[in-house]
Amino acid sequence: MGNLSGGQTGAGAGGGLQDFYAEVDELRNAIDTINANISRIEALHGKALTDIDEANLSQTERTLEALSSETSQLNNNTANRIRLLKSKAGSDPSKAPQATTLDRNFKNALRKYQMVEKTYADRTREQMARQYRIVRPEATEEEVQQACEDGSGQQIFSQELLRGNRRGEARSALREVQARHNEIQKIEKTIIELAQLFQEMDQLVTEQEPMVEQIDQRGEEIVQNVDKAQEEIGQAVEKARSRRRKKWWCLLIVRKCTCFLVIHDLIFSRYNCRRLPLLLAVGTVINPAPP
Questions:
Q1: 139 conformational bin, left if phi > 0, alpha if psi -120 to 50, beta if neither
Q2: Which of 39, 58, 168, 233 shows the smallest number of beta carbons within 10 Å?
Q3: Overall domain count for the chain
Q4: Does residue 242 form part of some domain?
C-alpha cells in the first residue's frame, strides 16, 4: 500500500513518457486496490447486519472502520494524482487518452462505492425500524422514521424502550439501534466525501474542456489531412498508371512502325534485286555494245 498511497511520483517527478506511463501503471493498481477494498467493505456490511454476538459485531465494525478509513485516504490520494496526471497530459494525444481512461475507471469505482454505502444505509435503517417495532408495535411510520433518522428520535426511542414491559429485550434493541445509528452517520459522511470527490473531478473536466476541444479539433484536422493525402495519393497513382499506359502505347506504336519499316525495306530490297538483271538486259538491247 505504500506505493499506492504515497506522494506523487512518476509523472509528478518528470515529464518524460516513461515516467508518465509508470504513473499510469501505479494509478491502475491503485484503482484495482480501491475496487478490492469496496468488495471487502460490502462483505463486511453483510456480516455486520447478520452478526448476533456483540463481540463479533464489535470486531466486524472495527475492521470495517479501519478499511473504510484506508479506502478514503486512497480515494483522496488517487483523485489528486489523476488530476495532476491529467494536467500534465494536457493536449498531448499520446497521453490524454490514458489519463481520461484512468479518470473514467476511478469514477466508476466511486460510483460503486456510493451504491454499496447507500445499500448498507438502507438495510441498516430497515433493521433499526424492525428493532423499534419489536418493542413498540403500535408506533406509526413517522415515529419509526424519526427514531431512525435524528438524535432527538434516539432519545424518544430510548425512553419508549425502557418504559416497556420487556426491559432486557428493550436494552438490547436500544444498543443495537444506537450502534446502527452511528453506522448511518459514518455512511453519510462517506457518501458526502465521495460526492465532493466527484465534484472536484468534474470541476477539473470543466476546466480542461477547452483543452479537450482543442485535442478533438486537432484530431479532426489530422483525419481531414489524412483523407486529403490519401485522395491526392490516389490521384497521383492514377496519373502514374495513365502515364505508364500512354508510354506503353507509344512504345507499341514505335515498335510497330519500326517493324513496318524493316519489312518495307526488306521487300524493297528483294524487289530491286529481282529487277536488276532485267534492267541490265533491257539496257543492253537498247544500247548495244560497239562492234
A1: beta
A2: 168
A3: 1
A4: no
Domain enclosing residue 76, as ranges: 2-207
Q: How far apart are CA 84 and CA 268, in angstroms?
A: 93
| Global pTM value | 0.61
* C-alpha span between 57 and 65 (Å, rounded): 12
Enumerate residues 6+ apart whose C-beta is below 8 A from 84.
8, 11, 12
Residue 9: how many other CB atoms lie within 10 Å: 14
| DSSP at 289 | P
Flag whether 251 is in a domain.
no
Phi, psi of 34, rounded to the nearest 5 degrees: -60, -45
- The predicted pLDDT at position 23 comes to 95
Cell of 110: 466511486
Q: How many helices (H) and strands (E) does the chain have?
A: 8, 0
Mean pLDDT of the chain: 76
Asked whether residue 48 is assigned to any structural domain, the reply reads yes
Q: Are 49 and 179 in contact (CB under 8 A)?
A: no
CATH number of the domain that 187 lies in?
1.20.58.70
The C-alpha atoms of residue 148 and residue 142 are separated, in whole angstroms, by 10
Grid coordinates belonging to 88: 500534465
Longest CA span, the chain:
178
Measured CA to CA, the distance from residue 191 to residue 129 in angstroms comes to: 22
Name the grid cell of 98.
Answer: 490514458
HSE, CB side, 13 Å, CA atoms: give it for residue 278.
5
Is 256 part of a structural domain of the chain?
no
